[in-house]
Amino acid sequence: MLTPVNLLDFDVDGLVNWFAERGEKPFRARQVMRWMHRFGETDFGNMTDVAKSLRAKLAEEACIRAPCAIRDSVSADGTRKWLLDVGSANAVEAVFIPETNRGTLCISSQAGCALDCAFCSTGKQGFNRNLSAAEIIGQLWLANKLLGGSASPAGSKDGDGEPDNGRVISNVVMMGMGEPLANFDNVVTALRLMLDDHAYGLSRRRVTVSTSGIVPAMDRLRDECPVALAVSLHAPDDALRDRLVPINRKYPLRQLMAACQRYLERAPRDFVTFEYVMLDGINDSDAHARALVELVRDVPCKFNLIPFNPFPNSGFDRSSTERIRRFGGILIDAGIVTTTRKTRGDDVNAACGQLAGQVQDRSRRTVRLVKSMEGR
Ligand code: SAH
Ligand code: SF4
């Protein structure tokens, strides 16, 4: 028997093509799309407005399969973290962060990460593989279902769920495990589903890709699927950034700043968010803050300061609250909107950079990744 095709791997155009190859009309693909993503349905037999013969054909050839949650932890602050099985002894994590006016889901794009940033526990585990589009969108699919956000087909409340399009998850950030732009095609397929009205219908402003700065892929994202952009900066000069974020050796700050400016020509927001992890005695002095102000002079931006989240043997400490306040004060005095990220969910290791999942390291990281990117 043929392996069934997982329909979660397709964006709308992909599904329309797959249906066309089987002589089915585009509207059929869109119907199935809605059942899968809006209603969280996995059984073709329940797709009542789809012709019976097509339902039977789909049941033979296809499946709808998201990763399974192997652990579900809830933090005292309401943050919820799922450990998801992605096969071959690999697991990745997705985190839901409820706030008063929004619910943000943080999702992963790779099992591990090859970029090996000095302060990141995901990077320390090494890289195993890219997640498929189904595994990426499957995190949103699953969280939506488990949080009761899937709409019911009739548009009414279903059980303890929210009303139609309840928007339990109002924002998605690709800030979990992995470097999204190193898994470009699958990430873009998943992003298109997040934005599509037949699937999740989120606005571009509410979907954020966070990158450590893979410059050519930033340009491609701008052209193919511009969503809100966050860039992990972490240092104001190349010497320090080379140490903390090794991909900087390939795409140094001058190129990165220029790419941010190009991105803003198409971005759904009129600023880039710079993320900056606060490492005690490493990148957190007044002089670093002043150098940052110079560096980003021509890039409309906001700053998000992230207190370092420790993990065993990291070799770094978190900057003190007072230091972070003074550092932020210098940016604010220069007219840059600056926030300090609240550390959420750290009692269940769900805070930034604590996402470790479980990864079977197969490759030796940066060198290999940089080489593979040279061909692009
Ligand atoms: N690979 C992407 C997205 C995932 S990391 C990127 O690097 O942007 C999401 C954010 O968490 C990044 O800004 C990253 O630098 C930050 N981060 C990584 N490890 C951290 C840690 N231990 N403490 C705080 N933030 C961390
Ligand atoms: Fe990868 Fe981002 Fe961690 Fe760097 S910070 S190792 S790019 S996940």
UniProtKB/TrEMBL annotation:
The record's subcellular locations are: Cytoplasm
Binding of S-adenosyl-L-methionine, residues:
178-179, 210, 232-234, 309
List the catalytic activities from the record.
Answer: adenosine(37) in tRNA + 2 reduced [2Fe-2S]-[ferredoxin] + 2 S-adenosyl-L-methionine = 2-methyladenosine(37) in tRNA + 5'-deoxyadenosine + L-methionine + 2 oxidized [2Fe-2S]-[ferredoxin] + S-adenosyl-L-homocysteine; adenosine(2503) in 23S rRNA + 2 reduced [2Fe-2S]-[ferredoxin] + 2 S-adenosyl-L-methionine = 2-methyladenosine(2503) in 23S rRNA + 5'-deoxyadenosine + L-methionine + 2 oxidized [2Fe-2S]-[ferredoxin] + S-adenosyl-L-homocysteine
Positions of the Radical SAM core domain: 99-347
Active site positions: 93, 352
Report the co-factor binding details.
Binds 1 [4Fe-4S] cluster. The cluster is coordinated with 3 cysteines and an exchangeable S-adenosyl-L-methionine.
SUPFAM superfamilies the record matches: Radical SAM enzymes (SSF102114)
Checking PROSITE patterns in the record gives:
RADICAL_SAM
Alphabetical list of Gene3D superfamilies matching this protein = 1.10.150.530, Aldolase class I (3.20.20.70)
Where does the chain bind [4Fe-4S] cluster? Answer: 113, 117, 120
Q: Which keywords describe this protein according to UniProt?
A: 4Fe-4S, Cytoplasm, Disulfide bond, Iron, Iron-sulfur, Metal-binding, Methyltransferase, rRNA processing, S-adenosyl-L-methionine, Transferase, tRNA processing
Q: Report any one BP term from Gene Ontology.
A: methylation
For this protein, the record's Pfam families field holds: Radical_SAM, RlmN_N
Keyword Iron among record annotations: yes
Instruction: Kindly indicate whether the keyword S-adenosyl-L-methionine belongs to this entry.
Output: yes
Give EC number(s), comma-separated. Answer: 2.1.1.192
One annotated GO molecular function: methyltransferase activity
Q: Kindly list the cofactors needed.
A: [4Fe-4S] cluster
The protein's role, per its UniProt record: Specifically methylates position 2 of adenine 2503 in 23S rRNA and position 2 of adenine 37 in tRNAs. m2A2503 modification seems to play a crucial role in the proofreading step occurring at the peptidyl transferase center and thus would serve to optimize ribosomal fidelity.
The similarity annotation says: Belongs to the radical SAM superfamily. RlmN family.
Q: Which HAMAP family match?
A: RNA_methyltr_RlmN (MF_01849)
- Share any extra remarks: Reaction proceeds by a ping-pong mechanism involving intermediate methylation of a conserved cysteine residue.
Instruction: Please identify the protein, giving its name as recorded.
Output: Dual-specificity RNA methyltransferase RlmN
Source organism (scientific name): Aromatoleum bremense
